[in-house]
Amino acid sequence: MTGERVRIALVLPDLLGTYGDRGNAIVLAQRLRWRGIGSELVTVLSSDDAVPEDCDLYLIGGGEDVAQVAAVRFLRRGGGLTRAVQHGVPVLGICGGLQVLGTGFVTGDGQRHEGLGLVDASTEPGRGRAIGEVTTQSSLGGVGMLTGFENHLGRTTLGPGSHALGRVVRGTGNGHDEAEGAVTGHVICTYMHGPVLARNPKLADLLLEWAIGEPLAPLPDPPEIKALRTERTRIHVRNRK
Amino acid sequence: MTDTTRDTDEPSLDQTPAQRQAPEQQSTGRHRLPDQGQSADQHWKVVPAPEQQPAEAGRMDLRTTTAMNVGRMAASLSQRLGLGSGGMIGGRLALTLQPKLLQQLATGRRVVMVTGTNGKTTTTQMVAEAMRAQAPAVSNATGANMLDGHVAALLTRLDAPFAALEVDELHLAQVTGRFEPAAILLLNLSRDQLDRVGEVRTVAASLKRALAQAPGAQVIANRDDPNIVFAAADHPNVTWVSGGVRWRDDALNCPRCGAFIGDVDRDWRCQCGLARPPADWKVTDTGVIDGAGTHHELALALPGHVNRVNATFALAAALHLGGEEAPALARIRRISQAAGRYDTIRLGGRRVRLLLAKNPASWLEMLDLVSGSDEPLVLVVNSREADGYDVSWLWDVDFEMLRGRRVQVAGDRALDLAVRLRYAGVQANVASTVEVALGGTQGGLPDVIANYTAFRDVLTRSRT
Ligand SMILES: [Zn+2]
What we know:
The complex is a heterodimer of chains A (241) and B (464). With 241 residues, chain A is α/β, with parallel strands linked by helices. Chain A is built from 7 helices and 12 strands. Chain A has a single domain (6-233), classed as Rossmann fold (3-Layer(aba) Sandwich), CATH 3.40.50. In chain A, the strands form 2 sheets. In chain A, strands 2-1-3-4-12-11 form a 6-stranded mixed sheet. In chain A, strands 5, 6, 7, 8, 9 and 10 form a 6-stranded mixed sheet that branches. The longest helix of chain A is centred in the C-terminal third of the chain and has 17 residues, at 223-239. Chain A starts with a strand and ends with a helix. In chain B, the strands form 2 sheets. In chain B, strands 2-3-1-4-5-6-7-8-9 form a 9-stranded mixed sheet, sandwiched between helices. Chain B has a 6-stranded mixed sheet with strand order 10-11-15-12-13-14. Chain B is globular. The chains are: A alpha/beta (241), B alpha/beta (464). The structure holds zinc ion (ZN). Chain A: Substrate binds at residue 129.
C-alpha cells in the first residue's frame, strides 16, 4: 500500500473484460471509499510494457481463446505478477482469468497452452457450454454462500496445490468433484460473473483485507444487496425438481 | 446499380451465401485506403430513379405467383386472427414455396439495407420516409429483420420502386448473396448479448464478406467505429459518416490485426495499415457538415446526437438514390417515433417518454440523452431469452453519470440494477412494476428507459 491509497490493478481489460469484469474494480474502490480509505485504479493495457509489481490487488477478467493466449504471453513478461503473488498480494481471476492463472488450458482448436501456474488448475473444453446461475458454499472462512453467473466451455481439474473456492450447490462450476473455482494462498479464481464481488460483498472485503494486511471495519450491507443475494440463491430452491 | 438488369435465373441463387461468397482479397501488403483524392461531389453522382417499374405480371412463373399469394393470404389471416402484423409468417411461408422469392421481389427496385448493432429500426424508418419524397417505398417497419421479414415487406406493395430494409448484422451476407442492394448502411458494431450472437469481431468479418458480394452497392459507413472501418475499408464505393462513438470498449484493439489502437477519437492508423478514413459527412451538435464544408441544420423531432447520426445516414442514402435534400430532410424531421422508440405513451395514467436501450452502447446513448434533464427517470431491465440471461453488462455502463438524481428501477432484474446504482452513487427505489415506479415520481414527463423485452411489454401495456 503506497501511502493511504490502495492500488487496484485492472489487468488487460482490452483483452480480458468481456463480462462486466470492470465491475469488480468499481465494487472494491467503493467499499474502500465507504470506509474512508482512498484507492487508485491502475489499468494495465496490452500496449503497456508489463504488469507493474507494486499494486496491492490484481483483477483479471475473462475473454476468448485468442485473447487468453495473448494474455499469458503478456503476463509472463517481466514476471511482475508472479513476484507480487510471492509477496502475498491478492489476485482475483474470473473465467478466462482462471484458465490463464492455472497450470494450462486447451483451446477450442485442441492446442494445449501453458498458463502462469499461480493456481494448480488445468482446463480442457467440455462437451457443451455451462451457462446459467451458479451457487456454491465457500470454503473460505466467513465468506458463506457465493452466487454468480457462469458462461464457459472449459472444465477445470484441480491439482494438490489448490483447493476449490466453493462446493457447487447449483450450476456446473469446474465440472469435476462438485468444485467451483480454485484458491492457492491469496490467489482466488472463479467462473462467476455477476460481477462476483457485486453479488458477494464478503469475498470483496476478504480480498481487501489481504490487500491492506489488516482487518477492515465492518460495513452493513445495503438492503438491495441482501435482497439480490436472497433472490439469486432462492431460484435454486424454486427450480429444484 | 446492377439489380435492374440481373437475371433472376442465374444458377448461383440456389447456393448458400457461403458458397457464393466472393474470394477475399489476397493482399498481404499494405492495406488499400479509400481514395483520398476523391472529391466530395464524386460521392454524390446523381442516379435517376429506375426506369423499369417492378412488375407483378410478365415473367413471373406460377410458383412465384403462388408463393406470393399464399404469403399474402397467411399475412392477412394472421392479422385478422390478432396474431400480430402477420409479416413474419407470410414471408416465411412464401419463401418456403419459392426460395428465390426475395431476389425476384428485389428485382427492378432500389433497395437500401440498414444494419449495425444499434439504431437500425429508427434509421430504416428515416430512409423509407426520405425515399417517399421521390416515390413510394416499402419497409420492414415492425423490425422483422431477417429474410422472411424482407419478403413480407416487399410483398406489401409490388409497385413501390424503393425499399428500406433493416437487416440483422449476421444476415446481411444472405441478402447480398441473393441480390445487390443500391446502398448498404453500416451504423455501428458493439457487444450485444454475447452468449447468443458471438463476438463483435465475428460480426465484423461477416459484414466484410457481405460487402464483398455487393461491389456495385454504395456503402455508407461510420468512420469513427473501427469495427465498421474494418468491414467496409476494402469496398470500392464508401461514403464515410463521422458520427462519433461513445462506447469504446469494443474498439480498443485493431479489428484486423489485434494491435492496440487506443483513443479512437483521433486519426488513428494501425501498424497493419487500417486507418480512420477522412469523413464525407460530419455530424455536429445541431446538424451535419457535408464534404464541401456546408453546414445543414437537422432540427429533428427525435432527440439526441444519436438521431442526428441516424438522420445523416438516411440523408446520404436518399441523395445517393437521386433524392433532393430539402424534401427528404423535411420528411425525416417529422418522424417522432420508430416502432415505439422515443414515443410519448400513456402508462398507468401518466404520459411518459419511452426509450429503448438493449446493450452497453445503447444504454450510454440513452443515458446521455436524459443526463441533462431533471424529469423523473425509470429504468427497467429484464433478462429473458431475447435479452440474454447474464446482466453483468450493467457494470460496463457508466451509470455514474446519473449521480445526484433519484431514479426508479423495475423489471426482472431490478435488484441487480439497484446494486449497480448503489455502487455508482445514485439513489434508487426498487418498484415491483413500471406503473408502481411511475407512482413514485412527481410531475413532469418521465423518461422510461427499458431493455428489449421490458420495452416490448411496456409498449404492449400502453396500447391496451
Ligand atoms: Zn491493425
